[in-house]
Amino acid sequence: MLEQGPGSLAPAVTVPEPLPPLPVDVWVRILQLIFTEDLTPLKSLVRLQLVSRTVLEAVRSLPLTTEVISEPALQSLRPLLQACPCASLSFHRSVDGESLLRHPGFRAMSGRTLTSLRAVVACTDTLSRFPALERLVLEAGAIQRFYPSVLHGGLRNLRSLSLVRFPEMELQGLDPVLLPSLREVHVTPRPLALRCAFHLALPPALHLDRLVLHGSFPDITSPASAPVVDVEAGALARQVAACRIEAQTLRVAMPRLDLRPPRALCAVDLLRELCCVGATWTELDLRLLDHRLWLVPPTPPDALVPAPAVGLHPEDLLVEAARVPCLMATLSWKQSGICRYPVVVLSRFDPSPGDDSDGAR
Known about the structure:
Elements: H1 24-34, H2 39-48, H3 53-59, E1 64-68, H4 71-81, E2 86-91, H5 97-101, H6 104-110, E3 116-119, E4 135-139, E5 160-164, E6 184-188, E7 197-200, E8 208-213, E9 228-232, H7 233-238, E10 240-247, E11 249-253, H8 264-274, E12 283-288, E13 293-296, E14 310-312, H9 314-321, E15 327-336, E16 339-348
Parallel strand pairs: 1-2, 2-3, 3-4, 4-5, 5-6, 6-8, 7-9, 8-10, 9-11, 10-12, 11-13
Antiparallel strand pairs: 12-16, 13-14, 15-16
Helix pairs in contact: 1-3, 2-4, 8-9
């Protein structure tokens, strides 16, 4: 209460006590509500750090989620990204995001908070700076082949790996440290990459919940632009729970194959291999531009040339799958751009206890 002089007619004025500063967690919540992935307000975070120590602490404890779409945007955001922790960061493939990832200030702030990243990475020691990564999207840059060595360095928490625009790839050399945690692998080849071939050979110790090879069907102008895919039947049966493959041509390597007519015997061999003891898959989604599934028999040791592959029509596969108690098969047709292609979906489930059938007949 302000004291009044003698004879003063002014009313008494009460001066309130100053309010205590808002706690840091309240400021964090306010900033979370205000700032989104829009780059313009994110720049304001740099100025907000000058308001008070409490706000500075809140800003520096707020994990950012942002996308950098150009080099000018990267340069304007560098001070912020080097001063605040990042949880999710996505660089357009034309942006040199690796220069920021290798900056000591960025590593100091985001080394333990960055869980999701999309970038072009060429150096083998860049990603090892971020052991908390759970989701990683690698895009092809100047190096057109995916080398597993860029993933070496102890990414023990990585659960999802996506490879984008690589004409060639090699998965068998993945760091064994990755294998226990890795659950999803997505591969998207470069659209219009003629003669794009993938050998989906997985490390024996890798067991995935989901494997997807995207054929970029909406973007291609010719079926020849879609990838040619080679995979082993045993890998589909024992190493992947759910698998989707979009391809110009899909070739499945078989440990054995009955080449005698009729052709349906080949379908029986494929289903027998897929339903073998130890099979873990539940769904196979196959989208094939050449309208056939090619089965590749083993080559005898004394053979001068490999045995020819056998083309299997989707209808043949459906007929034989209907005879297997633990399988359900569907066939549909889709149109995407210039391509009309069959979609074959095989689903596997445990047969009823009273059914003594085992696998394909």
